[in-house]
Amino acid sequence: MKLVRLIRHAESAANAGLATASPDSIPLTENGLHQARELAESITCMPDLIISSPFERAIATALPTTGRFPDVSFEVWPVEEFTYLSPNRFAGTTQTDRKPHAESYWKNGAAEFTDGPGAESFDHLLERADAMLAKLADHDTQNILVFSHGQFIRAAAWLIKHGSHARSYELMREFRAHDVREPFRNCSSYQLVFSDGRWTVECQIDSSDQERFSDTFCTSERSR
C-alpha cells in the first residue's frame, strides 16, 4: 500500500491580501514560516520521499520538513498551482483586485480556454494532476509527502472521484463551487492511498489536526 499526503503550502503574501508580482515568486509571510515549522514538527515518522512544487511558497513550506529529515530525498515536480489568469496582466495586484476576473473565468466554464501567456487551461491542470498520480503510482517509495497548492491538490482528488468525466462543463463549475464553499486552508492536506491498482482519498486533514496524519502514517509504515 502506498500512502501519499498532498499538503497545501503555508500562508503566503497573496493569502494575506498583499500585492504580488508573479505566481511563482510569492513568498510566505512570517506567520506562514511559523506554520511551516509547526507542520514539520508534527510529522513524527520519516517519509520515504519529499516532493515540492517549484513555486517559492511551496518550497519554503517544505524546507523545515526536509531539514527535519535530511536523509530523505527531496525532489521538485510540476505540481504548481493552477494559474488560470495570465500573470502578465495582473502583476502587482492583490487577490481582491483579481477577484472579478477570476469569477468571470469560472462563470465561462470553458475547460479548454487559456487566458493568455503564462496561464493554463482547466484541461491542462487536470492533465498535470493525472500525470502526478501516475508518476506517484509507479514510484518505488511507499510513504510520500507532496508540498503543493490548494487547487492543484483538489484537482488530483477531483480526478480520483470523477475519472474521465472530470473535464465536463458542469463538473468544472462544481469544482469552483466546492472550492469557494469549503476553502482549503493553508497546511491542510488530502491523504491518498494507492492499493490494488487504484487511488482513493482516505481523508482530508485540517491544519489543526496534524496528529491524525502522524498516527496513520506510522501505521502504514509498520504494515510494510
From TrEMBL:
Q: Which Gene3D superfamilies match?
A: Phosphoglycerate mutase-like
Under SMART domains, the record lists: PGAM
Q: Which GO terms describe its molecular function?
A: phosphatase activity
SUPFAM superfamilies per record: Phosphoglycerate mutase-like
Q: Which InterPro entries match?
A: His_Pase_superF_clade-1, His_PPase_superfam, PGM_Phosphatase
Transmembrane region positions? none
Q: Which Pfam families match?
A: His_Phos_1
List the PANTHER family. Answer: BROAD-SPECIFICITY PHOSPHATASE YOR283W-RELATED (PTHR48100)
Know the name of this protein?
A: Histidine phosphatase super family protein
Organism expressing this protein natively = Pseudomonas fluorescens
